[in-house]
Amino acid sequence: MDLGIRGKRALVCASSKGLGLGCAEALAAAGVNLVMNARGSDALEAEAARLRSEHGVEVQTVACDVTTAEGQEQVIDAAQDVDILVTNAGGPPPGMWLDWERDDFIKALDANMLTPIAFMKALLPGMMDKGWGRVVNITSQSVRAPIAVLGLSNAARTGLTGYVAGTARQVAPHGVTINNLLPGIHATDRADSLDSGVAAQQGITMDEARANRAATIPARRYGSRLEFGATCAFLCSQHAGFIVGQNILLDGGATNVTM
Q: d(Cα 90, Cα 35) in Å, to the nearest integer?
């Protein structure tokens, strides 16, 4: 399917690996020029070079921490006039409710709520002026069904979801859509981190921890970054203009909800 976005320009945050990279790959394959961001420059530059070579698109890189004011300024300066924004950030560490203090919540809010909001506030007006734009926020399945040990993520990402619910309806008349993708377990570094914690806690191997987790997913496997990226690219396409303010689960059926 031709997504109808060849020649457009996208900012994809945290895109040197994992789900962010999957989104960048799918958009590049559709002919979209990219601004890629990550904290580590080595992996970022390597992936940017690969996407330029494989897809013939322009790729600008900005290596910085977007949870800081300085990092946000750098990325926003590079991303002026983008047509597409994909926000993404790794989730806070797991723990129990007694473990977290105010500073822990502030860090989670900065990374998983306030930074995406800052990018939307900076870049949505330009999209509205052009009469076309797409925003996709990568959140989590825990927005629909909380995961007890991920309380920091539950709180911050649900706050972002509430913000998007209202904002999406305000910008839709200008041809701009905002939607959220809610990943379950995918084969990424985040899954490795969670599985290693389970393995250590239960005294089992990583392979056993992965197999046990996969058995709880109706699809009986982890998702891949490529299929996640393909869904993101569709939401950014010309064909998705009537999808507004939605929260789309990509979790292999793991979240047991009716709607």
A: 18
Question: Tokens for 231?
Answer: 């869904």
Identify which of 29, 21, 32, 33 has the alpha carbon closest to the alpha carbon of residue 1.
Answer: 29
Is the backbone of residue 108 left (phi > 0), alpha (psi -120 to 50) or beta? Answer: alpha
Q: What is the CA radius of gyration of the chain?
A: 18
**Per-residue pLDDT tens over the stretch 26-74:** 999 999 999 999 999 999 999 999 999 999 999 999 999 999 999 999 9
Contact 116, 139 (CB under 8 A): no
Packing angle, helices 18-29 and 41-55, rounded to 10? 20
Q: Residue 181 gets which letter from DSSP? A: E
Residue type at position 133? G
Q: Which residues are 179's β-sheet partners? A: 136
Q: Tokens for 237?
A: 């396409």
Eight-state DSSP code of residue 16: S
| CA dist., res. 161 & res. 182, Å (int) | 10
Helix or strand (DSSP H, E) at 191: helix 189-202
Phi and psi for 105 in degrees, rounded to 5?
-70, -40
Q: Identify whether the C-beta of residue 19 lies closer than 8 Å to the C-beta of residue 30.
A: no
Secondary structure string (H, E, C) spanning 220-252: CCCECHHHHHHHHHHHCCHHHCCCCCCEEEECC
Helix (H) or strand (E) holding 161: helix 151-171
pTM above 0.85, yes or no: yes
What token pair was written down for 229?
Answer: 């990226």
pLDDT tens-digit series, residues 78-98? 999 999 999 999 888 889 999
Residue showing tokens 């900012």 = 11
End-to-end CA distance of the chain: 28
